[in-house]
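Changelog excerpt

This revision adds worked examples to the README so contributors can see how folded entries look when concatenated. The first example is reproduced verbatim below.
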Amino acid sequence: MSSNVQFEDKPVSLTALLDREIQEEMAELNQRLQTDQFPGFSVETDDADVKLTKQVGDATVTVRFTVSSSLSEWRTGEAQEDKQNPEQPEASYSLISLPDFQVQISRRDRTLEVSCYFEQPEHDEETGDVYPTEPIFDIDELVIYNGEPRESEFAVSAEYFREELQEGLIQFLADHGIDDEFVKNLVSYSTTYEKKQYIGLMRRLREFVAK
């Protein structure tokens, strides 16, 4: 016997709500299937986890991230006038996946591991509105180790690095393929992959509650 919820004064089964959710999410996913590629990198997935690998010269570049709990509301366009309330134009927002990610650059037995994150969008101080910008990543911390990493390895936060050093590290990552184009592809791929995972979860949930 399926569970029921009260919706607009009418009993609606949870399975019916899930059917609707899956259908609507599938309709959006079909518009984004072309983003389900990642140029230049081999891609391995394990449920919510994603691993990207690429050879750059004598270095192996590995990027890891998970799409679990990675969604953020992002402003994607300029505000449009609301005909019903012209004094308060509506901005265009969408949910995109902005996962923290780790970059490992390995040469022989030594590895530089850099943890990265996406900056929060800037807000208008007076209105609180979010400025429409492209997602920008920054470095959180880094560590260097031989062989396999140990918990006792010294890691340093990049928050207090001098600006020139931060810029130098960003350029070093760009030299190894982690540049603006890569970040754009990562967000696009991650957003599509997160939606696929979400639809799969909703289908499993429907099977569970329908029994």
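The second example, added in the same revision:
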Amino acid sequence: MLLVSTVSSPRLYVYMMGQDDPKKCSANRLVKLRLAIPLYRRSQIPRGALVLDPYAGKLLTPSDREKVLRYGIVAVDCSWRKAETVFSKHLSRNGRRLPLLLPANPINYARGGMLSSLEALSGALYILGLKEEAKELLKCFKWAPNFLELNREPLDAYASATNEEELARLMEEFFPRLHTTPDG
């Protein structure tokens, strides 16, 4: 299993909002298995850590790897019904939006972009070139390895992108009907 404190792996954090069914919550499982460090207040988000934010203006790119290895990455575990309100509070200046991916979780299967915390962290690790860590993380739910199969081509392409413009072009190429700009 992935160790939170290894030098070559980034620290994974989950800002726990407690808005979902605890039995189905992927973030709870990550914390229970000691694969992620729980945060319970916004003030606990480490300075410099990247925060995965579906409404952020900047996309996560492979060039963010060194920052993530140094400071870590944070998934915000909140209900999708409350996400717009939660993220409107500007949790961090270091917010990054994942390029479009399809969830494999049973609740939002294939509903573009509606990833679980587990899928968001795994997708981020994969894009950052930490593919083995991404695969290892997905072992904590039976359905989770399907996330990589469902998104194999886009993830490989995103991991090879050199900038945000290329990522935007790739999203349009892979998901022409689902692709939206940050403005809507």
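Reviewer comment on example two: The mean pLDDT is 83. The two ends are 38 Å apart (CA to CA).
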